[in-house]
Amino acid sequence: MNINQAINVIDKELSQTLSDYQHWFTLNPEELSFKPQTGWSIEQILEHVTLTNHFLLILIRKGTRKAIELSTKKDLNTIIESSQINLQELDAIAIHKSFDWIRPEHMEPKGETELGQISALLDNQINECKELLKEMRNGEGILYKTTMTVNSLGKIDVYQYIYFLCQHAKRHIVQMQKVTDEYSKLSEAE
Questions:
Q1: CB neighbour class for 48 (10 Å; exposed up to 12, middle 13-18, buried from 19)
Q2: Residue 105 and residue 133: Cα distance in Å, rounded?
Q3: What is the pLDDT of residues 14-73, one digit of tens each?
Q4: Are 129 and 57 in contact (CB under 8 A)?
């Protein structure tokens, strides 16, 4: 897909991610804190998503700055004409348990952040991504690549990093749904 198509897809993904997450913050406290047989509670998953976003945003911000800086030194239009962005290679990130990955300890939830703060943080993070996307609206994001070790993706550009953030969030919606299903079965059995 070309740069403009990719930017539009990513912008829609960011909006959809924010919309899809709103529901999870409205569950009753018992369901939010319910600990499934394996894995995290929904509240812990929500915290993990914002922690991961925090670290992804560090790379996205740096990449945005570097990409914009490079755009003053390179012929962006010529590069854009010969470029395609492959977002589909990142779609596997959204599929829960589609690959093995041991997350770094600093991305594990600690339970120290209040749910309202997590919700506000997620909102701010997604909106910051939208703003960074606007800053790179002319295609600058293709100029800077950083290595992504998750699922052996290799070097990906700044647009792909933002898309990765959305796909990671989608992955955990599936996980939260499984927790809800387990909670519902236990509640019905009582």
A1: buried
A2: 29
A3: 999 999 999 999 999 999 999 999 999 999 999 999 999 999 999 999 999 999 999 999
A4: yes
